[in-house]
Amino acid sequence: MHMTRTVGIVGGGPGGLTLARVLATRGIAATVFELDEHPLARPQGGSLDLHGDSGLRALREAGLEAEFKAVARYDDQGDAIYDAQGTLHFQHNEESGGDRPEIDRTQLRSLLLASLPSERIRWGSKVSAVEPLPDGRYRVVGPEGTLGEFDLVVGADGAWSRIRPLVSQETPAFTGVLFIELQIDDVDTRHPEVAKLLPHGKISVVGNNQGLIAQRSSHGHVRVYFMFRVSEEQLRQGLVDVSSPARAREQLKALLPGWAPSLLAFIDASNDTLAARPIVALPVGHRWTHRPGVTLLGDAAHVMPPFSGEGVNMAMLDGLELALALSSDSDWSRAVKGYEEAMFERAAGAAEGAMQGLDFVSEHALEHVMEHFREIQQQAAGAGAGAH
Ligand SMILES: Cc1cc2nc3c(=O)[nH]c(=O)nc-3n(C[C@H](O)[C@H](O)[C@H](O)COP(=O)(O)OP(=O)(O)OC[C@H]3O[C@@H](n4cnc5c(N)ncnc54)[C@H](O)[C@@H]3O)c2cc1C
C-alpha cells in the first residue's frame, strides 16, 4: 500500500536528504525539490559535530555509518576558551576518543546525495507555493508551474520556509546577535601564527557583548565567526560592509578595541568571502495543529541559535523519525501526528538550551561559558571512568 503513495520534500538540506534516504531504504518514493542549481552551487558552511543520539543515529539507521567514518574527523573535537585580551581560561584537547566527530557540511551533503538515486532530486527547483487539492493531496508549485502532486509534502526548506504558513503563522525573529563570518584558507602553511591557536578543532573567545568562534574544517580551512550584540537598527544599517572585504576587515578591527593582536590576526588572515549572518529563532516551543498531508522538519519547524550545535543534528533526527513513522504506520496522518508531537517536545528542549547559548554574547559571558565547559569536562570524566 505504501508503494503507491508519494512524498514531496521541499529542501535538500541535511534534514530533507536524511528523510529521503531513510524513506528510500524503506521502499517509499520521495522527490526532493532543491533551489540550488547543483550540489556545489554555494558553499554549504563549515564543520559540524554530529551527536551520538541524533545526527550519528540518523546516519547509522540510514545505513551510512561506513561512508561517514571514511570522511569524519575524530581528532578535531578540542576546544579552548580565551578572553578578548588573549588569556587562556580553559582547554580541552579531545583526542580520537571523543563522541562528537566532525564532518564538513559539503561532505555530509555529498554522502547523503550519493545514497539516493539522482532522479529523486530536482535541482534548480524553487518552490513558491504548496496548494491543497480536493482529494486531500497537495500540489507543489514553482514560478513556472506545477512541480508535482503528493500525498504528503514536507517543508524541509529552512528558517524562511515557504511551507510553514500552511500550518503556522509564526516567523523567525532576530535574536539580537549578529555573526560576521570569515574564512581562512590553508591555515597551517599560510598562517602558522593563527594555526598555533587552533591545535585541535576550535577556539572560542569571550568578550563583552562580543565573541569569536573559529573552527577547523578539513584541508586546513578555518571558518571564523565574530559575534556582536546589535540593535535592529544596527542590523538594518549593516554593522560592517561585507561587500567590500578590505573595508570590512578594518571596520571589524575598529569594533574590537582592546582585543589581543593574536586574536585580531584571524581577521588579517581571512580571504575575501565574508558574510553577515543575523541569528534568528522561532519561539521556543513552536508547534501547530496537525494538518493532514503537510508537515515540517528541521529549521523550518524550529530554527534556533546555533550555539549548542543542535540544528543539523535535530534536522537529521527529525528526518529519521518522520521516515520511521511513515514506514511503520499505514495511516500516514496518524504517523505524522505522532512524529510531530515527539518533535515538538524534543525541539522545545533543544531550543531552550540554544537560547541560553545567546549568553555567549553578553556582559557576563565568560562566567556562562566557563560553567558550560566545566559541565563538559565533568561529563567527559564520567564517560572516561565508565570506559575503563
Ligand atoms: C552561522 C550558523 C552556524 C551554524 N553552525 C551550526 C553547527 O555548528 N552545528 C549545527 O548543528 N548547526 C549549525 N547551524 C544550524 C544549521 O545550519 C541548521 O540547523 C541546519 O542546516 C538545518 O537543516 P535543515 O535541513 O532543516 O535546513 P537547511 O540546512 O537550511 O536546508 C534547507 C534547504 O532548503 C533549500 N530551500 C530553501 N528554500 C527553498 C525553496 N523555496 N524551494 C526549494 N528549496 C529551498 C535550501 O537551499 C537548503 O538547501 C548553524 C547556523 C548558522 C546560521
TrEMBL record:
<keyword id="KW-0503">Monooxygenase</keyword>
<dbReference type="InterPro" id="IPR036188">
    <property type="entry name" value="FAD/NAD-bd_sf"/>
</dbReference>
<keyword id="KW-0560">Oxidoreductase</keyword>
<feature type="domain" description="FAD-binding">
    <location>
        <begin position="6"/>
        <end position="327"/>
    </location>
</feature>
<feature type="binding site">
    <location>
        <position position="42"/>
    </location>
    <ligand>
        <name>NADPH</name>
    </ligand>
</feature>
<protein>
    <recommendedName>
        <fullName>Flavin-dependent monooxygenase</fullName>
        <ecNumber>1.14.13.-</ecNumber>
    </recommendedName>
</protein>
<comment type="subunit">
    <text>Monomer.</text>
</comment>
<keyword id="KW-0274">FAD</keyword>
<comment type="similarity">
    <text>Belongs to the aromatic-ring hydroxylase family. TetX subfamily.</text>
</comment>
<feature type="binding site">
    <location>
        <position position="49"/>
    </location>
    <ligand>
        <name>FAD</name>
    </ligand>
</feature>
<feature type="binding site">
    <location>
        <position position="299"/>
    </location>
    <ligand>
        <name>FAD</name>
    </ligand>
</feature>
<keyword id="KW-0285">Flavoprotein</keyword>
<feature type="binding site">
    <location>
        <position position="105"/>
    </location>
    <ligand>
        <name>FAD</name>
    </ligand>
</feature>
<dbReference type="GO" id="GO:0071949">
    <property type="term" value="F:FAD binding"/>
</dbReference>
<dbReference type="InterPro" id="IPR043683">
    <property type="entry name" value="TetX_monooxygenase"/>
</dbReference>
<dbReference type="Pfam" id="PF01494">
    <property type="entry name" value="FAD_binding_3"/>
</dbReference>
<comment type="function">
    <text>An FAD-requiring monooxygenase active on some tetracycline antibiotic derivatives, which leads to their inactivation. Hydroxylates carbon 11a of tetracycline and some analogs.</text>
</comment>
<dbReference type="GO" id="GO:0046677">
    <property type="term" value="P:response to antibiotic"/>
</dbReference>
<keyword id="KW-0963">Cytoplasm</keyword>
<keyword id="KW-0521">NADP</keyword>
<dbReference type="InterPro" id="IPR002938">
    <property type="entry name" value="FAD-bd"/>
</dbReference>
<dbReference type="GO" id="GO:0004497">
    <property type="term" value="F:monooxygenase activity"/>
</dbReference>
<keyword id="KW-0547">Nucleotide-binding</keyword>
<dbReference type="GO" id="GO:0005737">
    <property type="term" value="C:cytoplasm"/>
</dbReference>
